[in-house]
C-alpha cells in the first residue's frame, strides 16, 4: 500500500481524505482512487480504460460495478507492478484534475 500511496500523493496537489470510512486520493476535491482495504485500490478510469486493463491484466485487475454502472477498476496492489500502478493512477488523475495540473504530469514525463 505504501507504494501506491506514494505514487498517488506524488501527483500535483493530490491529497488523501476519508470517503465513507475508507481512504481516498483526490485532486481539488475530486476522487481519482479509493482504498477499500490494504490489498486493493479502486481506480476511477473511463469504461474503455477499465475494460482494456482488465483484459490485459486479468490476474491483477477486475471490473467494479456500482449498481449497473461500471465504476472503476480494482487493482490487487501486491500483484501489480509499480509501472502499472503509476500508469493507472496517472490516468485516473488526468480525468479528474484541471488541465493545468494534468499537464504537469506530461511535462515531468518528458523531463526524464
From TrEMBL:
Pfam families: YjbR. Gene3D superfamilies: 3.90.1150.30. This is MmcQ/YjbR family DNA-binding protein.
